[in-house]
Amino acid sequence: MAERGLVREWRPDHPLDLAGVLAPLRRGRGDPAFVTAGHGAPIWRASTSPDGPVTTRLHRRVDGAVVATAWGPGAEWALDGLPALLGADDRPEDFVAHHPLVADAARRRPGLRFGATRRVWDVLVPAVLEQKVTGIEARRSWRELCRRYGDPAPGPAPAGLRVPPTPEQLRAVPDWEWHRAGVDLARRRTILACAAVASRLERAVELGGAEGRALLRTVPGVGVWTAAEVAQRAWGDADAVSFGDFHIPALVGWALLGRPIDDSEMAEVLAPYAPQRQRAVRLVEVSGFRRPRFGPRYSPRNFRAI
């Protein structure tokens, strides 16, 4: 019976883009904790939970119902949170677009919602890994940490699916292994500082909003950007803008104003969208708009050679 897993069917009463809602949880195509074969295929996630590791398989039936099957000690907890994970608590109907591009994207993507994993730790570690490095570097580090220190996903999971390393597992990683995974000293210190108070940081989900983000920022090395990246995923914070991002201000500026802007100008442009400023950013990102490129891409650094 355990091999068969626990099953829950949930039928949303709103448009739902299953892959689009879950996409922010995937850290690149090679993410060991998130596996899918492509459009329409089941999505497999491995995660931690208050009760232990869990594997969740999700797919959408032709009648619109979402079927989730879960294995592992955290299976019941994961299935209880299925509606929240798929954005049932989100309020896109309250969103008002103030720019044609945003309005058009909202019209074309009605099923794009902010889901909530209800779990800080699993999204906090990859967010810290993404600080001040390229996505290629961060995803490589995440893959190595999951594959080498995360446990195999419970149940009949696809080959290679791994549970993200727990705080205890990462605190036991030797210094030279962090170096081998391409993680510099600053990000390593931040992850270890988070690991030391990981259970307390989970309360951010209960607090939500600015209070939840403020709790995360009590950890040295967790700033506005990292807290926002966690908030968007852990409790579906549609107002948590990733200020300090290398790309987002330019994208938003070119898309909405026809020129590049900085964080302060972006705050002004997005102010009318409060309390759903990040939804406006997300819609710009999925709109298909591409800003002009005038220079070479930022080159990854090889921390293994330092």
Summarize the structure.
Keywords: DNA damage, DNA repair. The chain has 306 residues and is α+β, with helices and mostly antiparallel strands.
Characterize the structure shown:
The chain has 306 residues and is of the alpha+beta class. Among the domains are: 6-90; 121-234, Endonuclease III, domain 1 (Orthogonal Bundle). Helices cover 41% and strands 8% of the residues. It has 16 helices and five strands. It has helices spanning 18-22, 75-80, 82-85, 100-108, 121-129, 135-149, 167-171, 175-180, 185-196, 198-201, 203-207, 209-216, 224-234, 248-256, 263-270, 277-286; strands at 6-10, 34-36, 43-47, 54-60, 66-71. It has a five-stranded antiparallel sheet with strand order 1-5-4-3-2. Strand 2 (34-36) and strand 3 (43-47) form a beta hairpin. Helix 4 crosses helix 16. The chain is globular, with a radius of gyration of 19 Å. The chain starts with 5 loop residues before the first strand and ends in a 20-residue tail after the last helix. The mean pLDDT is 94.
